Amino acid sequence: MHEMNTFENDRNSGGGFVMGLLCGAALGAAVGLLLAPKAGSELRQQIYDTIGRVRKSATDGYASAVETVSGAVGDVVERGKKAAQRGVETYEQVRQSAADVTHAASKAVNDRL
User: Fold this and answer.
1) Quick one: how far is CA 74 from the chain centroid?
2) In whole angstroms, how far apart are CA 1 and each of 5, 8, 50?
3) What is the pLDDT of residues 52-108, one digit of tens each?
4) Cα distance from N-terminal residue to C-terminal residue, the chain
5) By the 8 A CB rule, do 63 and 13 touch?
6) How many CB atoms lie within 10 A of CB 58?
7) Residue 36 DSSP class
8) Per-residue pLDDT tens for 73-83?
9) Distance CA 93, CA 37 (A)
10) Using CA atoms, how far apart are residues 6 and 1, in angstroms rounded to an integer?
11) pTM of the predicted model, to two decimals?
12) Is-contact 33 50, C-beta < 8 A?
């Protein structure tokens, strides 16, 4: 449970950092454009284009992060299933060995009596 919370916190803080970075870049670009000596319509178009590029970059980054996390989670789940199956198989082998030893010991005692 603790490991899951740590994973969630790491994932959330990383996403917040990326979003902050992208928002800061967009804000910096917009301020730079506002301070540049250009006509109003040209400036508005440049701001619109810049915001569109930042939005696309953020969307692509988010999609990539979701894909990476989904793949990692799927891998962990698959490894967990395999480990659980190995545990069940080992338990059955030990149980069968104990039953065999018990049966052999019982037979040995009955043969001596």
Assistant:
1) 8
2) 6, 11, 42
3) 888 888 888 888 888 888 888 888 999 999 999 999 999 999 999 999 999 888 888
4) 55
5) no
6) 17
7) S
8) 888 999 999 99
9) 80
10) 9
11) 0.43
12) yes
